[in-house]
Structures are given as structure tokens and as C-alpha cells.
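User: Before I run my own analysis I want an independent prediction to cross-check against. Here's the chain; please return only the C-alpha cells and, at the end, one sentence I can use as a sanity check.
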Amino acid sequence: MPLDNPVLSSLLPVVLLILVGYLSGRFNVIRQEAVRDLSNLVFLVLIQALLFRTMCAVDVAHLDFSALSIYLATAAGLFFVLLVAQGGSSRAAVLALSGIFSNTATIGIPLIGLAYGKEALVVLFTLISMHSLVLLTMTTVVLELCSAREQAHAGHTRSGHLRTIGLAVRNAIFHPVPMPIIAGLLFAQTGWVLPGVVDRPLQLLANAFSPVALVLMGVTLAKTSIGQHLRASLVISSIKNLLHPLLMTLLGYAAGLRGITLTVLVMAAALPIGANVFLFAQRYQKAEELVTASVVVSTVMALFTVSLVMYLLPLWVG
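Assistant: C-alpha cells:
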């Protein structure tokens, strides 16, 4: 595979950043005690800037909700099937998110831009504008509901169902992921523009999100035995890299999507697991090692699965 191949040129930087983190963790350049602080930096600072700044540029009036809704409905449907199949716990919710949440920015933008051009990027940016808002907010609500239920069972409390749901919804709204998304979306609808003195620092913080998150993932990987999680991570990666795009192809085609729109949505579904899933696993301390292994396996597997999807797409899309 030549180095100028769009798949390789998009995935290789991700693999190398994870490798940098792995070596840093292996040789104790970044010690285990610092991992939680780095995780807080990424989750409570960098991702805030990224989500708020992304949503500030969203003009709801110009979004193509028809195609977008098909992608999000496909992902949400698969999420709840995986959630139920794995027992409906908070751990199951994190693993279900692994099966649907794509690395649309770090890998998707350069890959789809190189392979399909500017027209395809318009479709992708439309998807990115709602991708985190819908899928991460949905997962946050489910995680908070599951966590509230599990805490109630553990403490043998008899608090009412409505109170439990109310607390979970409140925690889901006042949460590091939905809050900047909602705030940015509301700001975008005012028509105002962020002044440069504010936008520039936000841009720098947002740009730092992906590399720092991937390095952090590598540090965690250095403390993780992939061998004991290999089988499970292969299953999760296969669901993300193969089943997700297959479902998107079938449902998108059945809904009448064709051409570049369907191509981009299927390619987005075929992308490997995004770093946000790893951060959710760390935040809720659920399946951290398995999710870390799955992100790495999914990214490496994508070298072959994304190439396969790109090869087969013309047969479906026409």
C-alpha cells in the first residue's frame, strides 16, 4: 500500500501518536499517577473547546436532516441492540458506544477529503456537526440512567423511579459533553461571531484534543494487556468497522440515498472507533482496558476494512 494512499495517510498518524503514548508509558516518561490528570485535562478542558467551537459554526437552517437522520437512526438503533445484548448496564453502554462512534474528525476529514473531494467534505461536516450532539448526548443519558440504577441497587435504596430518572437526566445535561454542545449550538443561532481573542485560544485547545487524547490512549495501552482482551476487541472492532457500514449501506440505499451522500455516510460508519469512547470509559471507569484495546485494534484493522469498503462502495452506490 503506497504511502500516498488516502487510507494509509489518514490512519498512520493516529497509529504513530498512539505509539508515542505507548512508549511514553512503557518507559515511565508519563507515569500511571498522571493518567487520571491527563484524562481530566482532555475530558474537562480540551474536548470542551472542541465541541463548543464546532457547534458555534452550525447553521441549523442549512443542515440536510434527511440524510443525517438516517445515519443517526442507524447508529442509535445499533447502539440499543448492543446495549440490550450486553445486559443494559453502564459497562454495556460504553461498549455499545464503541460499536457506533466513529473517528470522523482525525481520520474522517483527511481520508474523505483526499478520496472524494470538497463535495464529500460538505456532507461530512454536516454529519460532524450533529454526530457528537446526538450520539454522545444519547450515551450520556443512558449511562447516567444505568449508573443511577446500579447505585440504587448497590445501596438497596428505595428512591422512586421518577426521582432516579430526574437525577440521571439532570446529570446528563450538566455534563462535560452535552453542555458545550448545547451552549455552542445556542450561540450559533444568535448569528454572532466569536471575537478573535476568544476564538484563537479555543482553536488551539481544540486542535490539541486529538493528539493528546491519542497519546493518552497509548499510555493506557502500555499498562494494558491486549492479549487477554484480543478476542473481545476483535468482536467490537468487527461490529464497528464492518457491521456498522453494512447496516448504513442497506438502510441508506433502502431510504433512497445514492451517490456522494451515501458514499460519505457509509465511509463515516466504516471509520474506526473514536477517541471519545476511550474518554467515556475512563470517565465512568467501565471497561477501560477493553475499550483501549478495541480502539487500537479497530484503528489497525481499518487499514484493511476501510480499503475493502472503498472498493465495494461503487458496486452499491453506483
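Sanity check: The domain at 6-317 is CATH 1.20.1530.20 (Na+/H+ antiporter like fold).
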